[in-house]
Design a protein that fits this description.
This protein is mainly alpha-helical and 75 residues long. It is built from two helices and no strands. The chain has one domain. 0% of the residues are buried. Keywords: Membrane, Transmembrane, Transmembrane helix.
Length: 75
């Protein structure tokens, strides 16, 4: 009888530990979601922002040059 009670007690402890970790993980994910929900990644930059790309004029190259470019860069 004592063995059954110890087994039930240990099962209950594991259940409480699992439930606590699950609740902690859930609220952690909810907190992270709330932090980044109002984060606007595509807003105009402020301050001394510098544009790092520029438009390159398309050149009309032959198919062989394009094939060599494809094999060289894997594009």
């Amino acid at each position: 009888m004592k063995n059954i009670i110890d087994s039930c007690y240990n099962t209950f402890k594991v259940f409480i530990l699992f439930t606590g970790c699950t609740v902690l993980f859930y609220y952690g994910i909810m907190w992270i979601n709330q932090e980044y929900q109002n984060y606007h990644r595509y807003d105009e930059p402020e301050g001394a922002a510098v544009k790092v790309t520029k438009m390159v004029e398309e050149r009309d190259e032959g198919w062989l040059q394009r094939l060599v470019f494809f094999y060289h860069y894997g594009e």
